Amino acid sequence: MVQIQLSLAGDGRLVILTPQTVRAAFFQFTEVNREYTSREKFPLNRPLYKPFKLWKFENKRDGNILRSTYAPSGTKKNDWKETEATLLDALYRTHLDREKLSHLHKKDILYIEREINKQIVRNNLALVDGEGLLLSGYGICQEIGKNREKVKYIRRYGMIFILEPITRQTVLKAENIDLFLQDTNFDFHLVRYHGVLLSALRSRIELLFRHRLDFSITWTCTLDSFQPRQIFRITRIYPCDGFRIVNYG
Questions:
Q1: Distance CA 120, CA 115 (A)
Q2: Is 25:13 a contact under the CB 8 Å cutoff?
Q3: Residues 6+ apart with CB under 8 A from 222
Q4: For 14-62, how does the pLDDT look when each residue is reduced to its tens digit (9 = 90+)?
Q5: Predicted TM-score (pTM) of this structure
Q6: Burial of 230 (0-12, 13-18, 19+ CB in 10 A)
């Protein structure tokens, strides 16, 4: 199976989709995020870049939708509705004409990619099961001489982050480092700590942070308000099964 590409370039494109991975990534994403229901999928209910006709029949008993790329015949054909094929139709292509839906247009793939990344960055959704938990164990590191080392780690965004605890004072002296911060609700957040800056407007020192997946998302906090429960520096990163990291540095 072709591995799904992950990027840590910080441009908002965590997941990079290709014709070979677009469906695998979509169903991986929807399987892990059960809260991503029909209402959330609405942005993908749009016509394909190169549209064609589709017939749909909704089963009133279970709500399942049958799709056909051919005009139905017989006594029940009036129960079928003619419509334009959508991105969701192309993703859920079971029992459809594989020739028409074998390859999504690159603009369709890019739209699906943007939707998945938006949900992950803006709504904090996941890519694999068990994300966001602080764990410890052996055999996580994949380097010679390190594979027997017991480490703390977090699965997040389809990756395994090997962690090292550091102090608040160490962070304040540093610049441009990637951290996991635990808030008062015990949730962990992956951030880029940019450094200390002087607020000319308020004449006070503030700390500048960026969202690690999208550097355009920034925020500041005062020295007094920066009181995370735990702080971890990232020492190594590995992809989870089915993924590969293509852009990190």
A1: 9
A2: no
A3: 204, 205, 206, 207
A4: 999 999 999 999 999 999 998 888 777 888 989 989 888 888 887 777 7
A5: 0.88
A6: middle
